[in-house]
Amino acid sequence: IVNKTIEAEEIENYIGQKIKIHGSIYKIRKMSGFAFVLLRTKRKIVQCVYNEEFSQFDLNLLKEESSVYVTANVVKEERSKTGWELRILEAKVLSMPQEELPIVINNKIVDTSMENLLDFRPITLRNEKERAIFKLQEGICNGFRTFLLGQKFTEIHTPKIVYAGAEGGANIFKLDYFGKEAYLAQSPQFYKQMMVGVFERVFEIAPVFRAEKHDTSRHLNEYTSVDFEMGYIESFEDIMEMETKMLQFIMDYLQETYSYELELLKVALPDVAEIPSIKFKEAKELISKEYKREIKDFDDFEPEEEKLLSKIIEKNTGSHFVFVTHYPSKKRPFYAKEDRNNQEETLSFDLLFRGLEITTGGQRIHDYNEQVEKMKKRQMTVELFESYLMMHKYGMPPHGGLGLGLERFTIKLLNQDNVRLATLFPRDIHRVTP
Ligand code: AMO
């Protein structure tokens, strides 16, 4: 017997040997004279064969969701997809569920309402496909991190309890901080910019909080933001270029390292060789012309317009991504840098992926006077931002960056629509549990 517990991925190296393996009983499929016992291990479901001829215990001792140590023979079997078969000899039960599961989790999909899927999250995530989404998400984060470290970005961790909202608007959670008012961070914006002055290139993958009352498939009140910020840029297009390379890297990385999950979830990865870009104003006109729609809001997209624009771009170029640039200044936060040739427009962009905005980014104001002027114009209390403005006052290179919503990116990769599917424990206006 191999004297260590082995991983599902290693089984094929042990044909002809007796091994120990552990996991939870996912499913027991009784056939005549034998049974398939599916064992859920860390990443893969492993099929074992139970047969009274060689299994030295009573199958009734095993229940779905009991944790077990199994001793088994790895036997060559050409009829099996893997080329081997795992014959259970003995099983040691480590824990038994107290009750029947309230919901069936071991079919291809958890066939239930979104409500149930989320209410029973600690167990519905045990479903093979549900959990594969988060394995893939791990891959996405790993990909971001590996790429950015390779580009000499420094990973940082900024505070989530803050003194001022970075993104403006009323979408901010207030909290009582020892008798003073503080907030939950809407984004790491201020801090990542400050750290450009220290490390030149920085990134962070962390939760952010938005007190948005939207009840939609694309809004969460807590989501994971992938942020990067870089100094010494020549134009905001440097940031778009960096993002394009990052996305390319991720697709290759997922293909290489997460093919098991990609196959399980039937994900076809999009091509990101080149991402087309269009100015906001032109995009509005294009959509209006193609779909004979009246433009109602000249300063922002309606969600429907984002979908339509993605359709047009895909039809014309084949790309599932599109950069939209030069957003109107009045719709962008106070730190956004205006276009020198047109003060109404900012040097900023959004990235749409399959009809959904997944990224916002752009160049920031680095000049102290320019920043203070703009804040005054917006009737902001400049004194409140003293610590933010310290970096401007004492010298900053031209810089910019972006924020990408991890859940939105994940669902679009899966060709799905609801961000809750890509959130372990979603927080929305109706939900703070489990
Ligand atoms: P913005 O506020 O556009 O920009 O957010 C960046 C990206 O975060 C995602 N996102 C959300 N995802 C889920 N639920 C929400 N409620 C939600 N709100 C936003 C989107 C969006 O594109 N500081 C800037 C970024 C920057 O310029 O660096 C910012 O936070 O995918």
What does this structure look like?
The chain is of the alpha+beta class and 434 residues long. Helices cover 28% and strands 27% of the residues. The strands form four sheets. The chain has an eight-stranded mixed β-sheet, sandwiched between helices. Strands 1-2-3-5-4 form a five-stranded mixed β-barrel. α7 crosses α8. The model has no long low-confidence stretch (mean pLDDT 97). Aspartyl-adenosine-5'-monophosphate (AMO) binds next to β11, β17, β18 and α11.
Quick description:
The protein is α+β, with helices and mostly antiparallel strands. The chain has helices at residues 114-119, 121-124, 128-150, 189-199, 237-257, 259-264, 280-290, 303-317, 368-377, 386-393, 406-413, and strands at 18-30, 34-40, 45-51, 67-76, 84-95, 154-155, 161-162, 174-177, 180-184, 201-209, 222-231, 277-279, 321-325, 338-339, 342-346, 348-353, 356-363, 399-405.
Find the count of extended strands (DSSP E, 2+ residues): 18
Largest beta-sheet characterization: 8 strands, mixed
Helix/strand class:
alpha+beta
The percent of residues in helical segments reads 25-40%
Oligomeric organization of the protein chains: single chain
Mean pLDDT: 97
The DSSP helix count reads 11
Topology as a string of helices (H) and strands (E): EEEEEHHHEEEEHEEHHEHHEEEEEHHEH
Radius of gyration: 26 Å
Region (Aspartate): 189-192
InterPro entries: Aa-tRNA-synt_II, aa-tRNA-synth_II, aa-tRNA-synth_II/BPL/LPL, Asp-tRNA_synthase_2, Asp/Asn-tRNA-synth_IIb, NA-bd_OB-fold, NA-bd_OB_tRNA
Domain Aminoacyl-transfer RNA synthetases class-II family profile: 144-434
Binding site for L-aspartate: 167, 210, 360, 364
